[in-house]
């Protein structure tokens, strides 16, 4: 939703409009509940409503009554609506929204050389009362949308230049003697530096607008894909010139109300920090995170393709057996390392199996399913995000009364389903044939391993990856796949 070309005055006006709306709602006895305010006002503002909400809370213009979940204006908010503190308000908008506006917060502070007592008009269309619409009318003729002044509510710059051209035109018509003065304009074209100057700013402007900066450290470039919780972008870590992946999780809040935002962010940060602690070649490295911004994001190493893409290339026939087994073992060792660190995945699916430039498999998105888990004590509803991953979930993960101690065996189940899909190109059902019966190239020794990995009852399944790997290497005494503990890595670029 944010656009690089949006002007600070627009954001100021819209933030003020939200304050005016809250006061008007209170005066008329309307609801100021978070969900109701968002639903009513979000279509009328340029940025995400979350951003305005966080800004107004951070700078103490609004407060939240937690008992009734109602927003109200603070004394500061009342003063801003009454036309006071406009310079302060504009400066804080420039600082808080610097990223969305494509400006540096320090530059935004310096740009506040002139201030006014009258903010730009708020968006129209939600109130019929004259109290709201009257103050919006006078600024419209004097403050056109395309003004170049960066000062919030500054009325002078555009009003005076507009009348000047008519007098100049009339002077030209009446004063015939000034023809000798007309030669002076020809001197102007003679200045060649003029054409040189425009290209420079014109070339620089698109670059600054095209690249979005996150915390002045990361460039956010083209989108790599969108999932149910957010969007992944290719990025660059400016300090090292390193290509990275940036994941923004703004869509995650579509499943919850504003009251649950704090709990969701708390869970998100916990899971990101847990994955960052697992330093293993088979685990996607978490490099950084910021859950305090309006659009929470985290930074990962940049990878190249996923198992989902390779399965699609196989057109329903799976992937080559040797590749499938190498990928299977790399995922098994990655999960084994994570489990040793106390971290389970519980969201295994082809989209979360990624590959580096050498074709080695790496597991990502550990624990994100726990971010949206139901918690009756905190009022969090049950949310199933991404129905495509349901077939890989162990039965104990889906059961509504599931135990809280679901552990490594659930990941063993998910990995078994992935193994079958890689070998056959199909998702197994209760009466599906064994892998070697579908694909003659599959070693028969894998059949019993797959069967035990995917038992519905936990007590009939492998309890952990160590037990599974023990049977795997016993099934291949010729050591075609090396010995237990050896991690298979590829060194040929793919």
TrEMBL record:
UniProt region (Disordered), positions on chain: 111-146
Any Pfam family hit: Pkinase
Domain Protein kinase: 218-494
Keyword Transferase recorded: yes
Signal peptide annotation: none
InterPro entries referenced in this protein's UniProt entry, alphabetically: Kinase-like_dom_sf, Prot_kinase_dom
Keyword terms of this UniProt record: Kinase, Transferase
Example of a GO MF term: protein serine/threonine kinase activity
Cited SUPFAM superfamilies: Protein kinase-like (PK-like)
Protein name: Protein kinase
Species classification: Bacteria, Pseudomonadati, Myxococcota, Myxococcia, Myxococcales
């Amino acid at each position: 939703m944010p656009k690089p070309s949006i002007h600070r005055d627009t954001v100021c006006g819209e933030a003020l409009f939200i304050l005016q709306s809250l006061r008007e709602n209170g005066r008329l006895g309307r609801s100021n509940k978070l969900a109701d305010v968002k639903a009513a006002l979000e279509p009328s503002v340029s940025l995400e409503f979350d951003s305005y909400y966080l800004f107004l809370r951070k700078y103490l213009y609004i407060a939240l009554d937690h008992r009734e979940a109602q927003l109200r204006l603070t004394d500061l908010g009342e003063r801003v609506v009454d036309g006071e503190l406009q310079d302060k308000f504009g400066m804080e908008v420039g600082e808080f929204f610097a990223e969305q506006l494509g400006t540096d917060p320090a530059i935004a502070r310096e740009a506040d050389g002139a201030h006014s007592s009258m903010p730009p008009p708020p968006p129209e269309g939600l109130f019929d009362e004259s109290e709201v619409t009257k103050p919006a009318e006078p600024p419209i003729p004097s403050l056109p949308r395309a003004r170049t002044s960066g000062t919030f509510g500054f009325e002078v710059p555009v009003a005076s230049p507009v009348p000047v051209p008519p007098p100049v035109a009339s002077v030209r018509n009446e004063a015939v003697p000034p023809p000798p003065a007309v030669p002076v304009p020809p001197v102007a074209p003679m200045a060649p530096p003029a054409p040189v100057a425009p290209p420079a700013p014109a070339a620089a402007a698109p670059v600054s607008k095209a690249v979005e900066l996150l915390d002045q450290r990361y460039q956010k470039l083209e989108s790599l894909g969108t999932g149910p919780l957010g969007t992944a972008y290719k990025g660059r870590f400016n300090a090292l010139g390193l290509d990275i992946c940036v994941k923004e999780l703004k869509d995650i809040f579509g499943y919850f109300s504003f009251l649950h935002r704090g709990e969701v962010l708390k869970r998100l940060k916990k899971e990101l920090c847990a994955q960052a602690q697992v330093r293993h070649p088979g685990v996607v490295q978490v490099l950084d995170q910021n859950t305090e911004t309006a659009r929470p994001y985290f930074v990962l190493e940049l990878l190249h393709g996923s198992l989902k893409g390779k399965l699609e290339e196989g057109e329903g026939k799976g992937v080559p057996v040797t590749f499938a087994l190498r990928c299977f073992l790399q995922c098994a060792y990655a999960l084994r390392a994570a489990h040793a660190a106390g971290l389970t995945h519980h969201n295994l699916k082809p989209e979360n199996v990624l590959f580096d430039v050498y074709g080695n498999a790496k597991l990502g998105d550990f624990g994100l399913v726990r971010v949206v888990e139901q918690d009756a004590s905190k009022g969090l509803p049950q949310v199933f995000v991404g129905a495509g991953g349901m077939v890989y979930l162990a039965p104990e993960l889906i059961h509504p009364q599931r135990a809280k101690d679901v552990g490594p065996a659930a990941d063993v189940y998910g990995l078994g389903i992935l193994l079958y899909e890689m070998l056959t190109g199909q998702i197994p059902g209760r009466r599906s044939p064994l892998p070697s019966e579908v694909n003659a190239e599959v070693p028969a020794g894998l059949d019993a391993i797959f069967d035990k990995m995917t038992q519905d009852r936990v007590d009939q399944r492998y309890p952990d990856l160590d037990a599974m790997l023990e049977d795997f290497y016993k099934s291949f005494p010729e050591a075609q796949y090396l010995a237990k503990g050896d991690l298979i890595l590829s060194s040929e670029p793919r």
